[in-house]
Amino acid sequence: MATSKTLYTLVLILAIPIFVSGPAHAAAAGDSDGRSRIADGVWASADGSKVTYEAGYFEQYQTVTAAVMLRWVPGGAALVPNNPGRRNDDEKRGFGSGGDQVLINGKRLSGKSNDIGSALQRIQAEVVARIEVIRGTAAGLDVRSEGTLVNIVLHEDVSGGSGSWQLHSGFYGRSDADLDGLVSYSNSAGSLNYLVSAQYGPYNRGNQVERYETYYAPGSGAVLERRDITLPMLQSQLVLDGSVNWLLDSGAVLNLNARTADHGNEERETTVVSVPGDSDNTLLENVLLEDGLDWELGGDFEQRIGPGRLKTRVIYTHKTSDQTERVSLSSTVPGNVPAQSLVETDDVQTEAIVRTSYSLPLSGAQQLELGIEGAQNTLAKDVQLFAVEANGDLTPVPLFNAMSDVTEDRYELFSTHFWQLRPDVVLESALNFEFSTIGQQGADVANKRSFTYPKPRLDLRWDLTEVTQLRASLERTVGQLDFGFFVASFDNDNDQVDAGNPELEPEKAWEAKFAWERRLANDSGVLQAELFYNDVEDHIDNIRVTDTLSAAGNIGDAEYYGIALKASWRLAAVGLEGAVIDANYTLQDSQTTDPFTGMTRAMSDKRQQEYVVNFRHDVAAWRLNYNVEVKWNGERHANDINFREVDSSVEPDVNAGFQYRLSDRVLLWFDTRLVFDGHSQRTRERYIGNVADGNLLRHEEREQYFRREFIVGLRGQF
Prior knowledge:
Layout: H1 4-20, E1 29-30, E2 36-39, E3 42-44, E4 50-54, H2 66-70, E5 102-104, H3 116-122, E6 128-135, E7 148-154, E8 162-171, E9 178-189, E10 192-200, E11 206-216, E12 223-247, E13 253-274, E14 282-305, E15 308-328, E16 340-363, E17 366-388, E18 394-397, E19 403-422, E20 425-442, E21 446-463, E22 468-478, E23 489-491, E24 496-498, E25 508-519, E26 525-537, E27 540-544, E28 550-554, E29 558-570, E30 579-593, E31 600-601, E32 609-619, E33 624-633, E34 636-640, E35 643-649, E36 653-661, E37 666-673, E38 678-687, E39 696-706, E40 709-717
């Protein structure tokens, strides 16, 4: 791990150009509204805080959906998830003041599983009136900015209707292929606009992992055992979505959305174990089967009352999961489950949130928002472990805290003050108070605790010029707990049962950020550098329960800090018309105190470095565009009661794709995931019992490869 001194030195070196760079100048053609034209179909507001891309601007890029449109906005590609619908928003604590950096008609999507990435794939390009890029914070927005906000404004009248469709098939490491697709349709009926969609199969169904593990004896380095592992993974999914927007005669606006997803997952792992000096190999098979049904209802209502506006947002999610795992172990793998085991896990999770706020102007330069948010999260979980006897009979194995109901009731009072201190300086301040009660009831546990958290926040935006902006923020945050940590669970990566922890508390942190952003002339790109520092209390990591059993727990203080660099640049200036390159790089360091040894170490699961570079090129004369993405992850540490490990990418992952316009409304496209196979490496020191005792059992090396994937499809409009 890099030392703090080294990291701070590098941060300062990288930050020097921020403060010595001179001003840039955008094109100055203007109109009667004070806007300035900076490119064909692209306008900057009078104060430079907002850049607007008209719908006609995107015609040159053969866009079909709002997601594709956003990829051609400088800096917008980073806001679009690579796998829409795959993102897990369970870590979000309610609605809160943060959220997605992409808005639709100035509002966040009132959903969690129904995420913005999936929504952008369903919105046809034909119904998009314009895309607004907002730098920093602004009054009246439904979310505070963490950098750049993008607002996708839809046409108010979509009469006549329009739709989009997609058919695709992929090779995911199996001999046969699956035909998947998506269809969506939008229309209006008077003042009611609606959009419906259906999706069969996730965009990327799965992969096949090849692992090669070698175990070495401590000291001598002699090979103890080799393992060749093949793990095919395949997912299935059927998703139905619908949303309506209703503009009432009173001027009030009602938005409703619903989603249901029936999904499954199958993993069949085979392991060939060989031991030096033994001519007979051992074959092990692990099988994981999972079925789930999720559904979600969300909505928001906004109306003018007196001098201000009242906003109400609601959401309810319900997720069920039934999981069965058959585990086969060899005697050389230490664990706390029988060599032949069956694990059955059933859980039901719900979340209900209501958030109401009233915002009103205090003066021409100030605005105040007051509100309350209430939420309830529940988990009902049942884990059963069985030993599989030689004759196939199942013998129950007792587990402590294997069946419990967990509930959190939470209320938050919040106030936000927006103040335009000067034409070029904006301050947004907030003071929130959270009150929560967490209860757990089960055969082995009965527990109930209450918490109160003040959560202040300050956001400052300073426009040095029309194209250069400084941002600074300081915020007190409270993390969302994973209720699965409260109950015993099976860890299929390490083939062991992890104990639950009924005493777990949320992480708290002070988060500080300082960012510099520069928009290049003539809309040719954007540059951003951000310094960040997080001071964490009650950090969650693994703690000791017994000499061989661990659980998630609060281990004390932690901190992480670093720099994030982002750049998006149109390459027309170097003669490559229609090309854009996006690059993101993060360098960070972290430290905490290990609960097993008392020594200072890096935080688990915090990558030291990572980067993503994406190149896209539209060749209008050839009716095609193509893209290449390169990404790499640096070292990640993981720590448990009986092992220490480090993993990282051995070589960058390379993804590529292209699309060709067959007609005005039909595109042929092709994606290749992991052009050169994904290759990562893990080293692990395995100990006998508690790592603190220092009794090293063996040294483990793992080489892991993800097989290349090929996906081909048609995409069109109707």
